[in-house]
């Protein structure tokens, strides 16, 4: 993968000079360090990716675009790209520090990538040209990964668009009382405190006939019991609405 090579030696020096923590009380400060460049590069990268996503996927809602962006600019992705370009081999590190451990650090590699973005921008010495230089580099780098995430998210949004945003769950609850149905909910997903990751909520609805009904016949419905329906969304309430809407549709009940 081609990338913009920074020809300015001073800019290269700033990009490659990592500000390394020795402990909580002491820092080794090289002549140049890349913290300011990281700060600038992070903002530029976020804006470029945001504009590209809006251009590529105009059908997606902001929360879905944010989800794709978070995958593209997270620490793991940026550190992988830094290794792909061998940025780790050009870091200026204090000789007293563990060279290999620092060069392999995802946080260091991520910061180096962000700093390089800033230097590609600065090298043009013009804000508009700098943004275009970064865009021309980042666009082909991000597109394959963005398309991969877009497939799943687009399918999820399509499913939700076909679902009333409000009302299905409430209506189903009313109909269950009239129709001698019982509902059991099981949920999965959400925030995982161990991995510190956020996944979609998956709400599973199981409908059964209550104890006053005999057998497992459909009792006039378009399905047999027990019947299971699943909804998935980044929000728990939306996931339940999707599952409820599916249930109403299969049962032949118009909401």
Automatic annotation (TrEMBL):
Q: Where is the RNase III domain?
A: 1-125
Instruction: Give an example GO biological process.
Output: RNA processing
The record's GO molecular-function terms, alphabetically, read: ribonuclease III activity; RNA binding
**Keyword annotations from UniProtKB, A to Z:** RNA-binding
DRBM domain location: 230-253
- Identify the PROSITE patterns for this entry: DS_RBD (PS50137), RNASE_3_2 (PS50142)
| Gene3D superfamilies attached to this UniProt entry | Ribonuclease III domain
Q: What is this protein called?
A: Ribonuclease III
Q: Which organism is it from?
A: Wallemia mellicola (strain ATCC MYA-4683 / CBS 633.66)
